[in-house]
């Protein structure tokens, strides 16, 4: 396929409080699909056409597409993309960590949404085959999610819908942070969140996780905020020593797979002395809304805030 590429440096101002994203725009004159790639963590490439058939191999990207009213254009998703309900009837193209390239190619999409990390090798392969791949970067927390929404809106011709969604999310976030941002350390309850457990220990969140940011925005302090990684495996001794004042457990597939419930938390040896257990402050939170980098993170933030500071959010 013969291509004519013109690279133009642009700056896209996303929203107040969200950093600008550097855009490199490519123009083509091919007869078929227009191949381009959005590079991870750096320059972004875009096209000036609206895709008709989209495949998403990232649950967060899937939710963004539906939130922007693009559900009818989504022809394939990964098996973890289970929200909204309409995803049940969409062709599955493999798991998040192992998408099936043959199935993706069979659907003949003119846009594939992916992310980095374990998917990078698949992105490289799809690019080599000449497919249109947009790799979203989720490493910048809440602001990064808002940036991704704007980016997807621009790629798909849904700029106004993306701007409206981001503005709504920002307003809801502001309603929370207006009440929590100036809280002193002693006014911020110690918070522990567990999403899974096994014989190896309890799975929670460190300082570089989206969840750590959400806890702080909601007016709490993550008891493992000193751990310089996203996901950590902890122990009875460490949790008891941290003495969380509020405990959240995930509600969803991960929790179901290991049998995580409030009663399990209460029944663990030594946990009866933890402040959250003594004061019956053990709550469930929707797993996918908490951990999935999409529009529902604001739902999770509101839930966290209401339980951490019921006196502020009645």
| Share of helix, binned | 25-40%
Sheet-strand content, in percent, reads 15-25%
Number of helices: 12
**Biggest β-sheet description:** 6 strands, parallel
Shape: globular
Content-based structural category: alpha/beta
- Could you report the average pLDDT, rounded to the nearest whole number? 85
Assigned CATH class of the largest domain: Alpha Beta
Using only C-alpha atoms, the radius of gyration works out to 21 Å
Number of strands: 16
Give me the CATH fold name of the largest domain.
Rossmann fold
How many structural units, i.e. domains? 2
Instruction: Describe the strand arrangement of the main beta sheet, using strand numbers.
Output: 3-9-8-5-6-7
Question: What sequence of helices (H) and strands (E) makes up the elements?
Answer: EEEEEHEEHEHEHHEEEHEEHEHHHEHH
Low-confidence stretches: 1-37, 39-44
Q: What is the CA–CA distance across the termini?
A: 60 Å
CATH superfamily of the largest domain: Nitrogenase molybdenum iron protein domain
Q: What is the CATH architecture annotation of the largest domain?
A: 3-Layer(aba) Sandwich
């Amino acid at each position: 396929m013969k291509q004519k590429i013109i690279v133009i440096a642009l700056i896209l101002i996303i929203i107040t409080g969200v950093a600008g994203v550097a855009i490199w725009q490519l123009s083509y004159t091919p007869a078929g699909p227009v191949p381009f790639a959005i590079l991870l963590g750096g320059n972004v490439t875009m096209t000036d056409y609206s895709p008709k058939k989209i495949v998403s191999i990232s649950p967060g990207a899937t939710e963004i597409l539906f939130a922007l009213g693009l559900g009818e254009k989504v022809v394939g998703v990964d098996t973890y993309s289970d929200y909204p309900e309409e995803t049940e009837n969409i062709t599955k193209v493999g798991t998040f960590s192992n998408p099936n390239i043959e199935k993706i190619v069979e659907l003949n999409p003119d846009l594939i949404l992916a992310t980095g990390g374990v998917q990078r090798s698949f992105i490289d392969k799809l690019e080599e085959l000449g497919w249109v791949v947009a790799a979203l970067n989720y490493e910048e927390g809440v602001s990064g999610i808002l940036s991704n929404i704007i980016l997807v809106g621009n790629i798909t011709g849904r700029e106004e819908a993306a701007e409206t969604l981001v503005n709504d999310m920002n307003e809801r976030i502001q309603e929370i942070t207006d009440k929590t941002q100036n809280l002193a350390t002693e006014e911020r309850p110690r918070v522990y969140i567990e999403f899974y457990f096994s014989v190896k220990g309890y799975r929670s969140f460190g300082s570089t996780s989206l969840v750590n940011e959400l806890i702080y925005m909601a007016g709490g302090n993550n008891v493992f905020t000193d751990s310089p990684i996203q996901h950590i495996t902890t122990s009875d001794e460490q949790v008891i020593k941290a003495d969380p004042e509020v405990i959240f457990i995930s509600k969803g597939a991960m929790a179901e797979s290991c049998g995580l419930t409030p009663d399990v938390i209460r029944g663990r040896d030594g946990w009866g002395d933890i402040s959250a257990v003594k004061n019956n402050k053990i709550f469930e939170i929707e797993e996918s809304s908490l951990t999935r980098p999409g529009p529902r993170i604001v739902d999770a933030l509101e839930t966290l805030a209401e339980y951490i500071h019921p006196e502020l959010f009645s």
